[in-house]
Amino acid sequence: MSQSVYHEIGGREAVEAVVEAFYDRVLSDDRLAPYFEGMDMTELRAHQVQFISSVAGGPVDYSGADMREAHAHLDIGDAEFDAVAEHLESALRVNGVGDENVTAILDEVESLRAPVVGR
User: Which Pfam families is this protein grouped with (predicted)?
Assistant: First the structure.
């Protein structure tokens, strides 16, 4: 993915807005909210900004934990992964990210399904 996706969607400011909208949705979802109880949401939001910036080809390297290690204790299944992806798609779209860039970002996220769900 070229760096242009990050710039096309509006750079860091846009990614931060997407992350805010994403967590608003996730934390309002009764299926997902329990996964975030007791979590440092400030730190988690910062990691998510890094992650989205990285998968969008931005000038940021994701420095969070390995995806398998970070999610192993959570017992996440495909249904939860799908719900998170749907909330991310919604957050991207509500922040004006175009179809092509939404698809590119979601394809990168989908490539992480196996380690996140523990396969």
Answer: Bac_globin
Q: What is the domain partition of the chain in residue ranges?
A: 4-117
- Whole-angstrom Cα distance, residue 1 to residue 35? 30
pLDDT digit string, tens, across residues 19-70: 999 999 999 999 999 999 999 999 999 989 998 998 888 888 777 667 888 8
- Say if residue 15 is exposed, middle or buried (CB neighbours under 10 Å; 0-12, 13-18, 19+): buried
- Cα–Cα separations (whole angstroms), residue 35 to 6, 52, 58: 28, 20, 28
b/e map 35-63, b = 16+ CB within 10 Å:
beeeeeeeeeeebbbbbbbbbbbbebeee
95-107 per-position pLDDT tens digit:
999 999 999 999 9
Find the angle CA(85)-CA(90)-CA(93) to the nearest 5 degrees.
Answer: 125
**Distance of CA 19 to CAs 14, 15, 60, 114, Å?**
9, 6, 15, 22
Q: CA-to-CA distance for 62 and 35, rounded, in angstroms?
A: 21
